[in-house]
Amino acid sequence: MKVGGFDPGTLSVAEADAFIQQFNTERRRDYPYETAAAWLQSTYINDDSQLIASKANEHFLEYISKKVDESKRFNGVPGLSPETARALLLLKLQTAMPAPSDPALREELAKIASKMEANYGSGKWCRQDKSDNQQFLALQETAKTLNTPTPPPAPPGGAGRPEGPPGRRLGCGGRRACSA
Q1: pTM score, two decimals?
Q2: What three-state secondary structure class fits 177?
Q3: How many domains does the chain have?
Q4: Which of 14, 68, 114, 132 could be a cystine partner for 54, CB 3.0 to 4.6 Å?
Q5: Where are the alpha helices (DSSP H) in the chain?
Q6: In the structure, what pLDDT confidence band is assigned to residue 170 with cuts at 50, 70 and 90?
């Protein structure tokens, strides 16, 4: 029975091993560039870093799609070592964002992914301040606000501020940083 135009019975275990070895060599070569582009985008969120990350991601998506298609010829090859069989499976599961074969669509997908990453990293939270003005907080300011404990409102009847277990105050989620 042919799989992807290949008869698994005619392919050797050595060919599958060589395919995985070549894939691993190529990934070791390309991985530093891809992660550097992603780090650049995450650290310096601007149009230039998005372009660099988008192009690196586009290259990665094209490469992985090609290798996944090539790996299908080894489906059903008898006698694969557990390591090679696992590597072939992991290759097929490599990305949660399978790329289209059309270069224009793949480029668009990479741009969308980079834009989504930048939007997450440069996200803002809008809230009303005490003067009823809108206040826009960047991610770092939002983290400070969320991590600053605020006392809970006094219980009805003015009995004072309730206390939690010894050494902890209510309203700070039980974190030691809020300890009395």
Answers
A1: 0.62
A2: helix
A3: 1
A4: 114
A5: 13-43, 47-71, 82-92, 103-121, 139-147
A6: very low
